[in-house]
Write a structure and sequence with these properties.
It contains 5 helices and 6 strands, in the order βαββααβββαα.
C-alpha cells in the first residue's frame, strides 16, 4: 500500500489550539501524545498569505507563532518514493539541521518503542 503524507505535526494540545484558528483543519491524534493536521488544499489556502510555494510568508509566520508554545513540524512523506523530510519550528524559529522526519519527531518528543523501526512507526504515523 502506498501513501503520501503532507501534514503539520506536534503535540495533541498544541495542534488542537492551532486548529481552532483554521476552520478547515482537522486534528488526527497519534501515539505518544502527538497529533497531525493533514495539509489539505483548504488548510493550505487558509494558512497561506503573501508569497508563493509551500513555505510562503504567511505560512511560516503562523508556524513560527505556534512554535512559541511548543515545537511544530511540517512533514512530507511518500511511501513508494521513500521521501521523508520535515522542517521544525521551535521558540518562533526554524530549527537548523537535518530535515528527516525521524529527527523532527524526536524534537517533538517521540521515541522509538520496542518492536518499532523508528519514531515514525512508534508515533503511529504508518
Amino acid at each position: 500500500m502506498s501513501y503520501e503524507l503532507q501534514a503539520l505535526m506536534g503535540t495533541l494540545e498544541l495542534l488542537t489550539v492551532a486548529a481552532a484558528e483554521v476552520p478547515a483543519a482537522r486534528v488526527v491524534p497519534l501515539a505518544q501524545g502527538l497529533a497531525l493536521i493533514p495539509l489539505t488544499p483548504a488548510v493550505l489556502a487558509a494558512l497561506h498569505g503573501p508569497g508563493t510555494g509551500r513555505l510562503a510568508d504567511g505560512f511560516e509566520l503562523r508556524l513560527a507563532a505556534w512554535s512559541k508554545a511548543g515545537p511544530i513540524a511540517c512533514v512530507e512523506a511518500e511511501h513508494l518514493g521513500a521521501t521523508r523530510r520535515a522542517a521544525v519550528w521551535s521558540d518562533g524559529r526554524l530549527v537548523p539541521g537535518d530535515s528527516t522526519v525521524s529527527r523532527a519527531l524526536r524534537l517533538l518528543g517521540a521515541r522509538v518503542e520496542p518492536g518499532h523501526e523508528d519514531e515514525f512507526t512508534s508515533a503511529g504515523v504508518r
